Amino acid sequence: MKQSSPEAVSSSSSAPALSDHSQPSALSSSSSSSSSDKASSISTAAAAEDLAVGSRDGGGGAHECVTVERLGEFSAVCKWTVHNFPRIKARALWSKYFEVGGYDCRLLVYPKGDSQALPGYISIYLQIMDPRGTSSSKWDCFASYRLAIVNVADDSKTIHRDSWHRFSSKKKSHGWCDFTPSSTVFDSKSGFLFNSDTVLITADILILNESVNFTRDNNEVQSSSASSTISSSVVASPVSDALSGKFTWKVRNFSLFKEMIKTQKIMSPVFPAGECNLRISVYQSSVNGAEYLSMCLESKDTDKTVILSDRSCWCLFRMSVLNQKPGSNHMHRDSYGRFAADNKSGDNTSLGWNDYMKMSDFFGPETGFLVDDTAVFSTSFHVIKEFSNFSKSGGLIGGRSGSGSGSGSGSGARKLDGHMGKFTWKIENFTRLKDLLKKRKITGLCIKSRRFQIGNRDCRLIVYPRGQSQPPCHLSVFLEVTDSRNTSNDWSCFVSHRLSVVNQKMEEKSVTKESQNRYSKAAKDWGWREFVTLTSLFDQDSGFLVQDTVVFSAEVLILKEMSIMQDISDQETESNNAGSHIDTVWKRSSFTWKVENFLSFKEIMETRKIFSKFFQAGGCELRIGVYESFETICIYLESDQSVGSDLDKNFWVRYRMAVVNQKNPAKTVWKESSICTKTWNNSVLQFMKVSDMLEVDAGFLVRDTVVFVCEILDCCPWFEFSDLEVFASDDDQDALTTDPDELVDSEDSEGISGDEEDIFRNLLSRAGFHLTYGDNPSQPQVTLQEKLLMDAGAIAGFLTGLRVYLDDPAKVKRLLLPTKLSGSNDGKKATKSDESSPSLMNLLMGVKVLQQAIIDLLLDIMVECCQPSDGSSIGGSTDANSKPSPDENGAATPLESDRENGASESVPFPVYERLDSGVDEGGSASAVQSSDMNLLGRPEKALPGQPICPPETSAGASEHVPIHSKTKWPEQSEELLGLIVNSLRALDGAVPQGCLEPRRRPQSAQKIALVLDKAPKHLQADLVALVPKLVEQSEHPLAACVLLEQLQKPDAEPALRIPVFGALSQLECGSEVWERVLFQSFDLLTCSNDEPLVTAIDFIFKAASQCQHLPEAICPC
């Protein structure tokens, strides 16, 4: 049978984790066991212990014979032959005593099982006694043993089990109540019975030859050493004041256990440390293919008679293997943690190292750690002296003292299900702890308080006495919240906490910081790395350190909440293209968030926000946020922007939000909006006045509960222009070629393949665009999904992304060069590719709602191309990220009319990061996680006076992003200007006015003037012809003046007059402007000849007709 292994141990927080070992199959006599546990062992508390004082001869009504094979002083094999075994009527049998290592040993067997066994099982135990005295004597010894029922016919079928145990006057018996089914042994054909009724039971026993020494820091020594006969020793009764000391454990026959520790462990006697009894455990582990000696400190209390089962202590300890070779160095390792008597509280029962030291170093003959088969292990420890209490609504729930002098029990708090409480934690001898850490050069050490429970969550304070930075400058304080029920890995709770370092002289000068955070398994502690300076803390006059004692407190309020995610219905959206189908099936979903102690957080929401846990919709993580601004309840939806989330993925999400009327669902208030998870992350919906919502009869607040619902109406991936590089491989990018050599017509030139065209189509579809061909396969067109056409925020976000993307000439060139498309709605390829092929920019301008904005963007790029090398774009551009001024609470200010009318409509203003403010004069930065020591890569937290917000989502904001050149545009300006001119020439006439689109940008005429003045001569005619397309109608009069100024320049080319007159005739101006244009045109007649003269005369008559000056036109003189 598979042998058992020692129990599990956990690593210390400063050391690699110890590997788990399976639960031991043998338990002590004081243990309890489920009858269904096949591997458990129980000694019979009544029968086995009664047998201890019985006859020293074997008995129980059976003929038996005991032989002992001694393998040394501390090792023996006992063979117990029991006759007439199947027919024994006695409940129990016991062998004669035999001596091993100075102790009396014997075997106990229950043929039909003891009181703890399952029916039909045999129970077998090993019992060890100290022959020197009565059962009241203080003694113990450690033994490793194997019990077996021998199969005489086939030894490979022998049933055996292995275990270890520290035997004492209170724990004399150890073994298995369910050793093996009796039917297996009683079957005459199975091979266990010989001579028809005889059974052979064996026991291989190893006794540890050991001695211990325990010294407290006050030099009061309790020691014991033994002769070769009595090798074990014990520490005297626990001393509650043993806060610091040293325990030394000497093992004199270590090699005897060399094989045993590969699967089991040896452990020392216990010694007192604060409220706990600790012991050293040693075993062997394989780490990364190498064999290591493992050593840990254990606190699990096997004495179940102890009343204070919740006792614990925080301990800083050093574990050592002493080098017995003179002049050699000992092996030391330091660690720390909170020990508990059992693991029910979630604290450690074992801390140490799997890889303490290599076995080759330990056993090396020249290393000095194992001399004459003797090894010496020791641990020195320091336990903090602490006192803590927990109160709810001002009432004291319970308190404890680390020295054992306190009264009450901290476990009382665990039975309360309240969601608010205050925990106070006093640590004495704080300076000594600081000095000890400094002396041992221990950095990053944290002290964890006892646990207290609020809202069914386990909470505790975490303090870093020397902070988390180097050199040490600040004390760090955090609150840890965990799930006491361990119900699932995705648990989450929202917590408002106020942490303090109490000023014991003037409480109003306490340093207090407050924050609100959502705790989870991945983010279980939040707080401040720079809570208070160490200089201030240890200043004797500051009041924080009084009689070497520091007091911490935590006021905790947990949101009582419930959330449900459910599907609403299936909604199929289908887009039909002439050449292909892009079908997506979107399942609408609804997230319901019920807040059951809403009024407790009302004051918090006036300056900060509460938010739900994240829920998943369409591939993105979303959550609901709620706060109060100008006495109005504001709700928003935002995506997960934390480290670890997939920030590269961008989604457009359309949703509607509700505050549910729980009395009359028909009065539930719904509002609809949309976000883009990466580009514009949140938009705020303003609902009713808070006072209206809290009305008793309104139905929104029922029994302190408010219900919020978010329905996700639609969700699709959102296009990022960087995808052109990121999502297209080197081979795929041929579909979007920018190499001019590949654009030259040749007989071999063909359109891209179907696979390559799919790449281009997929890139467009990420933005909600579809590529179609209509009646002309050579002229692809782009259409926008209808669901985005009416979303001004989505269009603004797209245009913002386009402007941000076009930040250098190479990217502009990429979008302006013609693409080689196969234009196939019947699977055929186009056989030619020329400059009339559409560019990506042309395809995007085919969407009328985007056309004006893209034209403005191209005009800005032309201005950039015409600027000097060290210049920047001309005025008129404002930052798209300009924000409304936050109010004093950090919330964005709604429109004035909305405040007056109760904010009945959605307003596209951003959510500002609420600022955490504390009571201390220096303010309070946002709380962070203690485990996140690497600040690089983390999103910056809000600082006072520096609110965080996404780009504004109004329709016009996106056009206000200036082009900031990172390279010198003029180096490529002529080529880019030519590409832009070709792209704009493809537009059909002037841009239609009045279509649904973002507003135009100002100063277009001023920009045209700069471009015409600086552009190459060979492009001027084409640029002049484009003026009606580039200038909005309100600036047509200015554009007319700009065009005439071009003709009046001394170096003006005569050939420019025809395009100028053509452009002027397309402009819409008033009679006063046309009159001015008419008289300025007369000056051009004197220097015009041939065709320009005819064109000039024709234009003069047109201008004259516009301002009723035909007589002057006929006779200009």
UniProtKB/TrEMBL annotation:
Coiled-coil annotated spans: none
Gene Ontology BP annotations: DNA repair
Biased composition annotated in UniProt, kind: Polar residues: 870-884
Gene3D superfamilies per UniProt: Apoptosis, Tumor Necrosis Factor Receptor Associated Protein 2, Chain A (2.60.210.10)
Boundaries of every MATH domain copy: 75-205, 244-381, 420-556, 588-712
InterPro entries, per database record: FANCD2, MATH/TRAF_dom, TRAF-like
The protein's name: MATH domain-containing protein
